[in-house]
Design a protein that fits this description.
This protein is an alpha/beta fold. Helices cover 33% and strands 26% of the residues. It has helices at residues 44-51, 74-81, 99-109, 114-127, 143-155, 173-190, 201-207, and strands spanning 2-12, 17-28, 33-37, 59-64, 67-68, 84-87, 161-165, 193-197, 210-215, 218-224. Helix 3 crosses helix 4 and helix 5 packs parallel to helix 6. The protein starts with a strand and ends in a 19-residue tail after the last strand. The structure holds adenosine-5'-diphosphate (ADP) and magnesium ion (MG).
Length: 243
């Protein structure tokens, strides 16, 4: 469903070029929970932004649902973008809108009527267990609640592809686990393809069936990870063929 071939992305600033991703090739199948791990600065977020069509690669190809995204018209690209939702580490809620309006925002941007988006937003709010917060503003929410709201907002468009960039890194361990449990439930019930970036091995291990390890802005390894609690070997110790 997703295929990248020899994909690269550079950022140009005044004095230098940052090689954020080099020669990335991979496939991701429909319905997978695919993890991306690696140290800070190796290009994980850049890769997620390319996969979610927020930015385009400089070279190489990206095929999504059979279309080469770099040769699509603006209109076709926008249609594809509608199949995606993105969840950020810092929740990215709009602080001048109440919880219900935050959740309903993607539908408003698509021209859905007020009644319909309110009904759907209420349903999503219920799904994430925060009905009582409908009229509250994001400033009053805990980190875990804010992430639940951003998940509800992401799900309201029924995306085929769900992108998560460090979704639990700003949360305490217990709250993080609640969010991971919710993500697992969402995958089971709605079956989106989930692509998740994290530097936390236990997060990747809990959720993902296959993982890409990025090192020095290149693919270091792609594979299945071991179902074990022994993570003391770091990124090298998680692969199933190490057993
Ligand atoms: N918009 C940008 N402009 C210039 N450099 C960037 C930009 N975004 C990311 N970078 C650089 O690209 C590299 C990869 O960044 P990023 O994808 O955010 O890595 P990660 O998510 O793994 O920490 C880093 O060196 C970062 O500083
Ligand atoms: Mg990042």
């Amino acid at each position: 469903m997703i295929e990248l071939k020899n994909l690269s992305k550079h950022y140009k600033s005044k004095n230098n070029i940052v090689r954020a991703l080099e020669d990335i090739s991979l496939r991701i199948d429909q319905g997978e929970i695919f993890g991306i791990i690696g140290k800070s600065g190796v290009g994980k977020s850049t890769l997620l932004k390319i996969l979610s069509l927020q930015i385009l690669p400089d070279s190489g190809s990206y095929t999504l649902f059979g279309s080469n995204v770099t040769s699509l018209s603006h209109k076709s690209l926008n249609e594809l973008i509608k199949e995606t939702s993105y969840i950020y580490q810092n929740f990215s809620l709009l602080y001048n809108l109440n919880v219900l309006d935050n959740i309903a925002l993607p539908l408003k941007l698509r021209g859905v009527s007020k009644d319909e988006r309110k009904n759907k937003a209420l349903k999503m709010l219920k799904y994430v267990g925060l009905e009582s917060k409908a009229n509250d503003y994001p400033i009053t929410l805990s980190g875990g609640e804010a992430q639940r709201i951003s998940i509800a907002r992401a799900l309201i468009t029924n995306p085929k592809l769900l992108f998560l960039d460090e979704p639990t890194s700003a949360l305490d361990e217990e709250t993080a686990f609640e969010i991971l449990t919710l993500i697992k439930k969402i995958h089971k019930e709605f079956k989106p393809t989930i692509i998740l970036v994290s530097h936390q091995l236990n997060v990747i291990k809990y959720l993902c069936n296959r993982v890409l390890l990025i090192e020095d802005n290149k693919v270091k390894r792609i594979g299945k990870i071991v179902n074990t609690d022994n993570l003391s070997l770091g990124y090298d110790g998680i692969w199933s063929d190490n057993l």
